[in-house]
Design brief:
- This protein is α/β, with parallel strands linked by helices.
- Helices cover 50% and strands 16% of the residues.
- It contains 15 helices and 17 strands.
- Helix 13 (388-408) runs antiparallel to helix 15.
- The longest helix has 82 residues, at 234-315.
- The two termini are 83 Å apart.
Length: 497
């Protein structure tokens, strides 16, 4: 109350000087006699709108609202607030009050209210005849004699028998006040010499028996609802017995488990030893498999290198040594790209063809720095997993086709070409074959079919690799520029790792 606040401010001014005053409910500035203390105010405003909303949700058919208050000045303030909130909510077609009646007339009126009506009790200190009353006692009388559900806006009135409402529950208010005090003492709440205003929490507080009496469904209320007079469930009645029996059973289970664990410790140790031996065996087998695979791939790569050297020497017997070595180095780099991508990936037998083709093009571009800035490379690549055994010949084929395009597609005067483009694509065909296209907008092959051999011996190597190692097909189209189409199935080799 305000008197208690004034007492602390006036008569206990020297108690803990400078300590803030925590007031759960603020009416007016304290009557300071000493230095003003910082205030932590917990605002306890009435939630009239929330109560009216809950009334409308519980009784959606009700379209009339009756406000029950006394005729004293304080009660009239409640009346005005409730009527204003009801008119703003638009939930009710009719809003009335009986503040002008005497206490007996008021009780007679609430006994015979029409259906589809709900009432809200504000407060009641005096009737129109000037007779004084205690609001809680009046609320109890109204709850007992009303023919319609009556809602309250204070917890003490709901506890006197009203249906319920959105109120500040005194016990929860005490808990919130203690939490605020603890926050201040632990330093979580800092004042810095300023007053702090906090809002008290509102909770739905309802009498279970009154809800049942008027046919409302308590399950429609929020989960935070506090219920009064709720009947005990089977669990409430036998909770202690169930907990005791459950605890005893749990102890027995624990003892049984401990005995079983002790009896099985030796078996677990033996099983763990056996598993360790099996894991060592698997590890050794995996290492042997990897060693065999490494030998297989090394042997294959050495054979490919020998074939490259023989092919290059037979195709260009008069090629200068430096150019010969440079061509072979480029082919070896194309092979190494597959191994590098394999080591970077998560799979030991397959690589992503799209990423591999991009790296191959980069190798070809790096070999011809003068052309790198004038030729635009376009990529239309789908993610296609391919076995490493197929990737090596594919890499050599693509490398030869790209370098052939770079070297021979755009010969002539520099200003002869508006744009120089080489397009690289890969995808699956309808026949589930892997298809790779290398296209350029440069010179056409011409009518002489033998010109493919004369332009570059590497094309002969590419054709041999496609037909012999990949068991695929290679086609050339010179309708617009030059397009080379390679198709093959990735089923010529087995996945060993």
């Amino acid at each position: 109350s305000q008197e208690a606040v004034d007492f602390v401010a006036r008569d206990l001014a020297n108690l803990f000087p400078g300590a803030p005053m925590l007031i759960p409910g603020f009416e007016a500035e304290p009557a300071w006699t000493g230095p003003k203390r910082p205030l932590i105010v917990l605002l306890t405003e009435l939630n009239i709108a929330g109560t009216l909303r809950l009334a409308g949700d519980l009784f959606p058919a009700a379209h009339r609202l009756l406000v029950i208050t006394g005729n004293d000045g304080y009660s009239r303030l409640f009346l005005e607030q409730i009527v204003t909130e009801a008119e703003q909510s638009s939930r009710f077609d009719e809003v009335g009050h009986i503040a002008d009646l005497t206490y007996p007339q008021m009780l007679e009126t609430v006994e015979d209210l029409p259906p589809e009506t709900v009432a809200v009790f504000g407060t009641y200190f005096a009737d129109s005849a000037g007779e004084s009353f205690t609001p809680a006692a009046v609320a109890a009388k109204v709850a007992a004699r009303s023919s319609v559900p009556v809602f309250g806006i204070r917890d003490v009135h709901v506890m006197s028998g009203l249906v319920g409402g959105s109120v500040i529950v005194s016990t929860r208010l005490g808990e919130q006040t203690a939490e605020i005090a603890l926050d201040y003492l632990t330093g979580t709440l800092e004042l810095d010499g300023q007053d702090v205003a906090l809002e008290a929490e509102h909770f739905p507080l309802f009498d279970w028996q009154e809800l049942v009496r008027y046919g409302a469904d308590p399950r429609t209320l929020p989960d935070t609802t506090v219920f009064l007079n709720r009947p005990e469930t089977l669990w409430d009645t036998h909770r202690l017995t169930v907990i005791t029996a459950g605890s005893a059973f749990l102890v027995l289970v624990i003892l049984t488990v401990l005995v079983v664990i002790q009896n099985r410790k030796l078996q677990v140790a033996l099983r763990a030893q056996k598993q360790t031996e099996q894991q060592l065996t698997v590890t050794l087998n995996d290492k042997e498999t990897l060693i065999r695979e490494l030998y297989h791939r090394t042997n294959n790569n050495m054979q490919v290198i020998q074939g490259l050297l023989r092919s290059r020497m037979s195709a260009h017997p008069d090629l200068p040594l430096a150019e010969f070595v440079d061509d072979v180095i480029g082919q070896l780099q194309s092979m190494s790209q597959a191994q590098q991508q394999l080591f970077r990936g998560e799979h030991l037998s397959r690589i992503d063809l799209a990423e591999y083709l991009q790296s191959l093009v980069q190798v070809a571009r790096d070999r011809y720095p003068d052309q790198r800035s004038t030729i635009a490379f376009l990529f239309h690549l789908q993610s296609v997993p391919i076995l490493i055994d197929s990737a090596v010949p594919v890499g050599l084929v693509v490398y030869e086709l790209v370098t052939n395009a770079v070297r021979h597609a755009f010969t002539g005067e520099p200003d002869e070409w508006e744009s120089k483009e080489i397009d690289v694509t890969c995808d699956f065909t309808e026949a589930d074959e892997i298809e790779i296209r290398i296209s350029d907008n440069g010179l056409r092959w011409g009518p002489d079919p033998e010109r493919t051999r004369s332009i570059g011996g590497g094309l002969g190597l590419a054709t041999a690799l496609v037909e012999q190692q990949l068991r695929g097909t290679i086609e050339f189209d010179d309708s617009v520029g030059t397009t080379c189409i390679v198709r093959f199935r990735d089923d010529q080799y087995e996945e060993r790792v």
